[in-house]
């Protein structure tokens, strides 16, 4: 979510908060007989009385040209308000907005209110963009038997999602148990198959360290599977460090994808 905290700079970039959490987008139409000033002042007063801090507000020309359009440019949600509140506003339109914040019972809440009246003959559009901050539950990517079977049939190898290690360590974390159970069940159902267990890292750190870490992680998986009843002679652990990336290591997302363990058919 993007909530504006300023007007566009010379490069048409609008200062803003970039937030994640539960979002709500509300739209109201007010009578054409009311003024945007009246509605705007009432929102300011009500929010301040409720304990919100106004982080930014602007009116008419002070909001700049096409504030929402510039705010959301380059985003898949660039047409977020389409249908009832145009993203395009020129500096001469009857437009006012504010962004505010409050913490309620340790819950941080941010909101922007946009008020727009195209001309004296039309009703007034009011939009609320509200964000209740929350952390996203992670480590939810997992695997099942169909995924293992399909990937092995397709390419002879499979990335073992849902296996998690302590940072820069070969110690398996407890949340790996579910994926280990799925892998064990698959191997039990296919006793004739043998595998390389291959560890991979991103390109952070030295080559020798990454080679050592990737093999240690592969061996941790191997040992965990043996403890769950898989025959040791079906598995061989190796590490290739950063030498076989899935994605470019130039981004955090790419690095995360490259840190993995795979089963490779022998």
Taking the sheet with the most strands, its summary is: 5 strands, antiparallel
Beta-strand fraction estimate: 25-35%
How are the strands of the biggest sheet laid out side by side?
3-7-6-5-4
CA-CA gap between termini: 47 Å
| Helix content, binned percent | 25-40%
Which runs of at least 5 residues are low in confidence (pLDDT < 50)? none
Q: Name the helix and strand elements from N-terminus to C-terminus, one letter apiece.
A: EEEHEHEEEHEHEHEHE
- Rg calc: 27 Å
Inertia-based shape = elongated
The average pLDDT is 90
- The tally of domains stands at 2
DSSP helical segment count: 6
What does this 3D model show about the protein?
With 266 residues, the chain is α+β, with helices and mostly antiparallel strands. It has 2 domains: 2-133, no CATH class; 145-265, 2-Layer Sandwich (60s Ribosomal Protein L30, Chain: A). The chain contains 6 helices and 11 strands. The protein has helices at 36-49, 67-71, 145-155, 177-189, 207-227, 252-258, and strands at 2-4, 16-18, 21-30, 53-59, 94-104, 107-117, 124-133, 157-159, 195-200, 235-239, 260-265. The chain has a 5-stranded antiparallel beta sheet, with helices on one face. A 4-stranded mixed beta sheet has the order 8-11-9-10. A two-stranded antiparallel sheet has the order 1-2. The mean pLDDT is 90.
